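Researcher: I'd like a structural prediction for the single chain below. Treat it as a standalone chain; there are no partners to consider.
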Amino acid sequence: MRRGFSHRGRQLIAVVALAVAIMAGATGPSLQPAGAQDVPPTPTPGVLTTPVANLDCSTVAGVATIYAIAAEESEARYRVQEELASQGAVEAVGRTKALIGNLYVGANGEPRACSRFDVDLRTLTSDSSRRDNYLYNNTLATRTYPVATFVLSRVEGLTGPLTEQETTFTLIGDLTFHGVTKQVSWGVTASLVGDTIRGTAVTVFEMPEFGITPPKVGPVVSLDETVKLELDLVLKPAP
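Model: Treating it as a single chain, here is the predicted structure.
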């Protein structure tokens, strides 16, 4: 009887040990995919701490197709939260269709570095001409810095060419705004229908990051320093 009990005990111990090993494997690092912890997370839209790319875009290699922004069907916007003495909290929205640019696409449908767009800040208009004039002459100093420019350096989260189904990914590159260049990321949703790309892009920044002094004048009681930039883009094959 003692021998039989000892044998069953060893069997029980073996089963328990196997169960513990399985549980440890299920929760421990042994099931972690190799290199998974080394993959950096996709940056959220905004200004990055990494240095600007300063790409040499005198020539762009590996381009199969060039898409040009159709300005009449596109729009650039800013959004800022402000508090006015007479109205309280409001959202200031300025917009323009004065934007140009090209998207370079490789043979596999991937956007290529040095794709760029430019926005004429002198044409931004909101629901207040007083705000617009102060923006031109003071906040953005558009006589000195009339254009904002973005130059693409890389793409993250896009695993294949665009299709008719909307795809979300991130564009990263150098944004020059108000005389300051920073590397920023844009959250993008885009699709390709026929030969036309349609998409939206969003990023945010704090005014001091681009050397902008938040305006405090006239009816403006307070102003959120966070600026949201939005793009509605339609791109078609360049002639």
